[in-house]
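Hi L., both proteins are below.
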Amino acid sequence: MPSLIVMRSSAFAAALLLSSTAAAWSPDFDDPRWPLDALGRSCADVDTEPGVHLRWYCDARGRVAGVRMPVDTLHVDTSHGRELHAWRDDGSPNGRWLTVRLHGDSVLFLHHATCVNCRRVLGWSYVLRLDRLTDADLAQIQSELGLPGAPVLRRAAAWDAALDRTFPER
């Protein structure tokens, strides 16, 4: 009988191992649905390779509400979104710019380059679901962009107004 118990335990362990590895999801950067296909996934299932500079934002239910990545690695067509803001600092020796596009009612694509003339373009891109981000994450993101951390900006119109005050368009 002990061999039957071991066999059943081994089968159970194998089933657990297979089910846990099958649930893992890694972003496919060549997929035209990236990064929108990440939004709403379970944060526990997201798996990225070491060295990939992605910052995942999870909502209160443990679902992906946003992602941050180096500005020069987000190569997706955002032309389907409505432009909320476009700013360029031509007076900066390194070149800086910020573009914000709205996809649907609540997903923002933000591209903030802080050094366009550097060997590697520096800055961050964000894809954010405004209605799902935690207040703490949203306040942190706003601060990273040079916006006040409070109040948190949950609507596209609030982002547009705050961006107009901080990054006047020319």
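That was the first. Here is the second:
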Amino acid sequence: MRHLVICVMLLGVAAPAVAKPVYLQCVNAKTNDDGSKVVFNVTFDEATAKLSMSNDHGVVDRPATFTAGEVRSEQSDSDPVQIDDDLRISRTTGHYTDTITVGQQTPIVSSGSCKAVPAPATKF
């Protein structure tokens, strides 16, 4: 019986914690031509290995990978031209870098900062 109790205790300690989705608001370091800030939202969920990016134009869902120091989402599309997008968000500083490469052109790099925000309120 004692071994069973120890085994159950060890299983409880070794079981991974189920992380809740994390909600971020990100602001680009550069501004729009009219001087307004470029703001977008990111939600990531380690349990599903997904990341969602949203702004006034809609939502994009992407696969993501997670380490202790970084959240990373890479996506490629080749219709009609090859487009590679590599988003990296530092968990320690909140700094993000998004590198977009279209075909053989020079990569477009944007960066800025993200901060945690409360989960959106729901009606049900």
